[in-house]
Amino acid sequence: MAYETILVEVDERVGIIRLNRPQALNALNAQLINELNAALDGLEADRNIGCIILTGSEKAFAAGADIKAMQNFTYPDTYLDDYITSWERLSRTRKPVIAAVAGFALGGGCELAMMCDFILAADTAKFGQPEIKLGVMPGSGGTQRLTRFVGKSKAMEMCLTGRLMDAVEAERSGLVSRIIPAADLMTEALKVAKVIAGMSLPVAMQTKEAVNRSYETSLAEGIRFERRVFQSQFGLPHQKEGMSAFIEKRPPDFKA
Ligand code: HXC
């Protein structure tokens, strides 16, 4: 499929999706979301892909939902078309997804980054939920996910004032896993993605599912889920390969 608003590339077992509307700082419109969703479907269906990177440009991961496209929406438009629900496809991706964020990740852009499994931030990254300045509030998970990442006080301040957070504050408050010099962001993201893509794919997917389960359930249920999935992994050839490789002092080969 030929895309106009994203670029998709494959490097070994890593799929790279780059948001690409430079004229609008990667503002998110329906076409971009449809193309992103189609690309995710394709990479999910490809068993040779073990990890996905979602990134933008040096200046912007994404500056939010496209304000020009939204300006004249009415309530019936948003309700009847279920505006935004299709944006959640990213959060249902079963394979690991890394957000590599440089520049602005604002509004829907910050929300997309938070739907990924973890965020690697360039030292130029700026995060924020400035929707309130436009007379609306976050609509794609910002009030919920940001609060889980950084706690109520900081999330509330950011959502109520629209203040942006730089990379240092984002790392300190747990929004991003680490900060990387901007020039090295993609090299480092690719290195991390290749490490993940070199693991057993079903085990990586199950690990992601178990970590995410911690947000949705009680501790006892989460631990029961983890235990059952852990036990089931002894039915995979990858457990034999991983443990044999350790004992034989060689690197494991999980491709089989
Ligand atoms: C449409 C946008 C845009 C957006 C930037 N542009 N953000 N177009 N929607 N969200 C366009 C500008 O209009 C401009 O186009 C071009 O991109 C460059 O932007 P500038 O503003 O000239 O760049 P700069 O001065 O560097 O400022 C960067 C910025 C600013 C601070 C990021 O662009 C900005 O504040 N953008 C809006 C951020 C925002 O409010 N995001 C939340 C959106 S609401 P022209 O044609 O003029 O050159 C949202 C709701 C989510 O996300 C709900 C669920 C998804």
Structural account:
- This protein has 11 helices and 10 strands.
- The strands form 2 sheets. The protein has a 6-stranded mixed sheet with strand order 1-2-3-5-7-10, sandwiched between helices. The protein has a 4-stranded mixed sheet with strand order 4-6-8-9.
- 43% of the residues lie in helices and 16% in strands.
- The chain is an alpha/beta fold and 256 residues long.
- It starts with 5 loop residues before the first strand and ends in a 9-residue tail after the last helix.
- Hexanoyl-coenzyme A binds next to helix 2, strand 6 and helix 4.
Question: Descriptors for this entry?
Answer:
256 residues, single chain, binds hexanoyl-coenzyme A, four-stranded mixed β-sheet, alpha/beta, 43% helix, six-stranded mixed β-sheet, 16% strand, 10 strands, globular
Q: Report the principal-axis shape.
A: globular
Low-confidence parts lasting 5 or more residues at pLDDT below 50? none
| Structural class by SSE content | alpha/beta
Q: Which hetero ligands occur in this complex?
A: hexanoyl-coenzyme A
- Counting DSSP H or I runs of 4 or more residues, the number of helices is 11
Order of helices and strands: EEHEEHHEEHEEHHEHEHHHH
Please state roughly what percent of the residues sit in beta strands, choosing from under 5%, 5-15%, 15-25%, 25-35%, 35-45% or over 45%: 15-25%
Helix content: 40-55%
Rounded mean pLDDT score:
97
Strand segment count: 10
For the terminal residues, how far apart are their CA atoms?
29 Å
> Rg to the nearest angstrom?
19 Å
Q: For this entry, what is the oligomeric state of its chains? A: single chain
